[in-house]
Amino acid sequence: MEVHQVEIVMSAVRESQYPTDDLPEVAFVGRSNVGKSSFTNVLINRKSFARTSAQPGKTQTLNFYKVENQIFFVDVPGYGYAKVSKKAREDFAVMIGEYLRKRQPLKGIVQLVDARHLPSKEDIEMYNWLISEDIGLPVLVVATKADKISRGKWNKVEADIKRSLQFNEELSDFEIFSAETKYGKDNVWDWLEARMLD
Ligand code: GDP
């Protein structure tokens, strides 16, 4: 999709604040600093629409971006925060859990991982939960920052990440991505359009 129009619609901290437009939603998840804002900005052709470099301790909200009046991108704040209180972390985990499990317009989930490293324990736990029956939505794993790895190693990176996640080929798909070169952008959009906009 060639994106011309994007609105930040809202930051929500509770269900009553989620949009009621009845458009399909895709959630973007990943640990802080994985490159989620950069990924979002490439998909929507903006330089700095989504915030880059999350600040630890900032208010944690679900951010909804309405794209071309057709789909909401839902930025789920990075897991792996240490600087907020335990209570705030738990409240937030409950909110995300309920959003991902129960949100009716949610049609798919993109999980970002860093192509340079094997998935962390949290990445693996998140992936396994996302493909479980508890959620039951299509999952796209995106290995980002691929420009930091030579092209000749991409197949190995994919194989290593998949092995580490115990990747399920039936329930999920995989793409290599770079926000620097925009490699993978069209494939990600194809995946979104096929799963969200049919
Ligand atoms: P977020 O916290 O997940 O939203 O991550 P950001 O998008 O803010 O990115 C974190 C850092 O990684 C920033 O310094 C980005 O410039 C950098 N970054 C993100 N994506 C890429 C990429 O594809 N390639 C390279 N080389 N750097 C990236």
Automatic annotation (TrEMBL):
Keywords (A to Z) from UniProt: Cell cycle, Cell division, GTP-binding, Magnesium, Metal-binding, Nucleotide-binding, Septation
Family matches, as Pfam families: MMR_HSR1
Stretches assigned to the EngB-type G domain: 22-198
This protein's record includes keyword Coiled coil: no
Superkingdom as given in the UniProt entry: Bacteria
Cofactor: Mg(2+)
Keyword Ligase annotated: no
CDD domains: YihA_EngB
Function: Necessary for normal cell division and for the maintenance of normal septation.
HAMAP family xref list: GTPase_EngB
Family listed: Belongs to the TRAFAC class TrmE-Era-EngA-EngB-Septin-like GTPase superfamily. EngB GTPase family.
Protein's name according to its UniProt entry: Probable GTP-binding protein EngB
Species of origin: Weissella thailandensis
Lineage: Bacteria, Bacillati, Bacillota, Bacilli, Lactobacillales
Gene (name only): engB
